[in-house]
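Record type: monomer structure entry
Structure origin: computed from sequence
Chain ID: A
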Amino acid sequence: MNDFGEKLREWGIAEYGNLAKLAEAMDILPSSLTRYLKGDRLPGYPMLEKLNSLGMDMRWLFRDEKGVFTVNEKSEPYRTEEQRLREENKQLKKQLEQIISILQNKKAD
């Protein structure tokens, strides 16, 4: 089992009493949950967002037993995605500023 799988199991049983109820709350098949628990599958952003909405503490999820944020080769896709989203956000803000400027100029005319 992997760190994510162990923590998911621990949290799921504490919150839902059993893994079948956890899978139902996550809106996934029990077989999909098993893949997460075994480490055959890692959660993407939508699944992490779902777990967060169910009450899972993301800070706890990504910290090791010493309280240190865990960064390893498996977390690289998350950092890459975060970086991509930050860049996309920056570009969208710039475009929005340009649109606002154009609208303000048209209003002034």
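Annotation 1: Residues 1-70 form a domain with the 434 Repressor (Amino-terminal Domain) fold (CATH 1.10.260.40).
Annotation 2: The radius of gyration is 20 Å.
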